[in-house]
Write a structure and sequence with these properties.
The chain is mainly alpha-helical. The chain has 17 helices and four strands. Strand 2 and strand 3 form a beta hairpin. The protein starts with a helix and ends with a strand.
Length: 285
Amino acid sequence: MLPRLFDLDRKTMELAATNVYYPGGSWNLIVETSRICHRCLSPGPLLEKMERAALTEILGYLDQLASEPNGVILDLFAWLRTMMTVSSTEALYGPRNAFNKRPELEQALWDWEHDLTRFLLAPIPALFARKGYRARSRLINAMTDYLEWKGHENASDLTKARYQAGITYGLSIPDIARFEIGSIMGVLINSTPTLFWMLAHIYSDLQLLAELRVELSLGSMKPTIAQDGSIKCTIDTPTLRQVFVLLSSTYQETLRFHTTIPLLAWSCEILFSRSDIASRLAVSF
């Protein structure tokens, strides 16, 4: 499956599979990568650093909406897709993040995601999943350029450690790039549809929306007055689950109701291609 999805050759797969069952000790590229992910994504300063980077980007999108005096009607899924793609990759890859500098890569990522099933089932993806095949090539080339230009040196601790593990176990930079685009896909095909369905449920239930607004206004927000007279509220993100119980429950129920798999993203697109459904779920901010 991995060679078809990420265009990995036999040599790379042999490197990844070396000592996979620990015959020579507890070392292996896949095991080491898993350890890195657990270390960097466990609650603590490394995760909080990435959260701050992602939230900084997200706040920019929210501030842009708030600056519209009469509100704006938007394609919610497309807007969330862009916001999550940029914020997540910015948190991972830092100031040289290719997705922020080259917006067309966002579409390439989702074109590839759309063809994942064809990559797995079609005998020749280059023929039967052409759009996704070309999109994957653009992503690999962009990530290879990013690594060759040393962009990872100013990236998150997670990206730095994964790069070093790849070099240590003998991967080439293009092969590290192939694994990286798989990591990006793993993040976004889960978070983006989940956030979409969560907001769709909230804004389609006026009682839930009202109760959440009350909870947020009475929770652990810390209002301060800025020099320009505006009021800014600070939320202690590590305490979100304990303080905002209804918000946390809404998120958990979203996960329970909607499986986050690639087909889910397709269902969102199909949903909004139906004008009768789209008109009922149009969200005005």
